[in-house]
Amino acid sequence: MELKVNQDNCLGCGVCVIACPVNAAISPENAGGNGAKTEEVIMMVENGFIKLFSTDKCEECGTCQMFCPVNAIWLE
Ligand code: SF4
Ligand code: SF4
To answer: Where are the transmembrane segments (predicted)?
Structure first.
């Protein structure tokens, strides 16, 4: 499966970024809502939209998809 995003639908809320357990392990400041500080994370919000970075680290758990309120991130 592959991680996909649709920036047109994204609200920039950052919920997926915080909910992702892999992101939390790579960039603990995520958990405080401060946003990732490194592009080593799978994805982060940049300029108000979700952007993918190190997608090879995705473990396909589906948590981001489950939490996104507008289905702007999903596994395909
Ligand atoms: S599927 Fe899981 S590991 Fe992959 S980006 Fe979403 S929350 Fe993170
Ligand atoms: S993809 Fe969904 S959960 Fe993630 S920042 Fe965009 S709207 Fe929020």
So the answer is: none
